[in-house]
């Protein structure tokens, strides 16, 4: 069937006029970059004051737009709603920024609890995790910077014992996922801590991706080295005899990456311009689609053209729309025009659905605010679609039947 990402009737069928107007207000606000920059700096501190008015304002606006709820139980209502429209869910326990062994162990237990819940649902094929939720940031920086650690040779026994605990946590999560037939999408991190993440994920893939794809690494294609990294990962997977799980994203830390590279007098890891990123992303799509026998890919994109490229390749190759190794995904609260139209056409598509206490998902919410203020055209795109749908509903002939 023909598919159009301009169909707002499908995209917003689940939203009332009031909800659409609320979303329009939020995206309008995000259009002011100066306001977003000020808000992202002040909000974490203001939240610590516990002022009910601020808490209520955030809960009714940005939290409601992008988060499933403050608990796993609360997220169930959103998951069930999406299921009615043929949309799957990637569950994410969205607590970030906590450190300490007790917090890492608690996060591990929560991730496993989410896996057990996902296993009982027909529309939750994946959960998402961040290694920074399981490991100390300074430890990961040390691992990333030391060639000796990359080679597995290191004389600091205390750090290696600490990293072994991280590996044990990851093994417990991936083991539970494998036993319960749930995929684990491991998020990408900043470039200065990504190396240990990549090594750990490859280790988990070799263990758990023998007969089916359980573990997925995330490749940020705004980095100029990641297309080659994808191909190298595939080569290693073939040599070691396991299936490769890959989630393709453009990236989430562009401004931070460029600022750090400049402050350290280093070459930026980010592509020179958006066109180069788009090319790498689409080339990565083509590469994965050409190797579906041993690559399972999640195309996590808000870009119309990239998603349509996958649709076209599925058609050209004569593949089933719901091919088990091809999955689309967008963030909850964004790009409903892509998600809902793909779902209605019969493709595998999901919403990335975080949940967690409002104070603890603030880092995630601040990234969404920054993303919508910095990504070229994203806020304007959301607003134009919302306005089009509100006008469509306003001027819809009274004799039309929904």
Query: Number of DSSP helices?
Result: 17
**What percent of residues adopt helix (DSSP H or I)?**
55-70%
Number of strands: 8
Give me the CATH fold name of the domain at 129-348. Answer: TIM Barrel
**Strand neighbour order, sheet with most strands:** 1-2-3-4-5-6-7-8
Please mark out the parts with pLDDT under 50 across 5 or more consecutive residues, or reply none.
Answer: 149-153
- Helix-strand topology string: HHHHHEHEHHHEHEHEHHEHEHEHH
The average pLDDT score comes to: 88
Rg, Å, rounded? 21 Å
**Proportion of residues in β-strands:** 5-15%
CATH class of the domain at 129-348: Alpha Beta
Tell the overall outline: globular
Counting helices, strands and paired strands, the structural category is alpha/beta
CATH architecture of the domain at 129-348: Alpha-Beta Barrel
Distance between the termini: 21 Å
**Largest sheet data:** 8 strands, parallel, barrel
């Amino acid at each position: 069937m023909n598919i159009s990402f301009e169909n707002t009737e499908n995209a917003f069928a689940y939203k009332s006029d009031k909800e659409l107007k609320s979303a329009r207000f939020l995206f309008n606000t995000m259009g002011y970059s100066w306001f977003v920059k000020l808000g992202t700096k002040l909000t974490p501190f203001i939240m610590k004051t516990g002022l009910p008015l601020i808490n209520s304002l955030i809960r009714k606006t940005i939290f409601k737009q992008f988060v499933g709820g403050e608990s796993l139980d609360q997220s169930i209502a959103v998951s069930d709603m999406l299921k009615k429209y043929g949309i799957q869910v990637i569950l994410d326990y969205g607590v970030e920024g906590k450190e300490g062994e007790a917090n890492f162990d608690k996060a591990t237990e929560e991730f496993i609890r989410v896996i057990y819940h996902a296993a009982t649902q027909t529309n939750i094929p994946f959960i998402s995790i961040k290694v920074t939720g399981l490991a100390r940031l300074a430890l990961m920086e040390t691992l990333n910077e030391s060639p000796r650690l990359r080679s597995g040779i290191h004389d600091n026994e205390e750090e290696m014992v600490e990293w072994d605990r991280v590996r044990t946590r990851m093994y417990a999560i991936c083991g539970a996922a494998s036993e319960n037939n749930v995929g684990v999408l491991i998020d990408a991190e900043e470039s200065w801590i990504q190396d240990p993440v990549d090594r750990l994920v490859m280790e988990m893939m070799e263990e758990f991706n023998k007969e089916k794809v359980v573990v997925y690494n995330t490749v940020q294609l705004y980095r100029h080295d990641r297309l080659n990294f994808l191909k190298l990962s595939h080569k290693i997977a073939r040599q070691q005899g396991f299936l490769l799980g890959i989630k393709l994203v453009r990236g989430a830390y562009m401004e931070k990456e460029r600022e750090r590279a400049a402050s350290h007098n280093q070459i930026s890891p980010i592509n020179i311009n958006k066109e180069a990123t788009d090319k790498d992303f689409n080339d990565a799509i083509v590469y994965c689609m050409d190797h579906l026998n041993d690559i399972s890919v999640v195309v996590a994109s808000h870009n119309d053209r990239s998603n349509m490229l996958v649709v076209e390749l599925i058609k050209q190759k004569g593949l089933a729309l719901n091919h088990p190794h091809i999955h689309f995904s967008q963030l909850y609260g964004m790009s409903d025009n892509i998600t809902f139209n793909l779902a209605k056409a019969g493709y595998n598509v999901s919403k990335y659905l975080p949940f967690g206490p409002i104070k603890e998902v603030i880092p995630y919410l601040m990234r969404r605010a920054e993303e919508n203020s910095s990504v070229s055209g994203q806020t304007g795109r959301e607003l134009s679609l919302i306005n089009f749908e509100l006008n469509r509903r306003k001027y819809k002939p009274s004799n039309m039947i929904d």
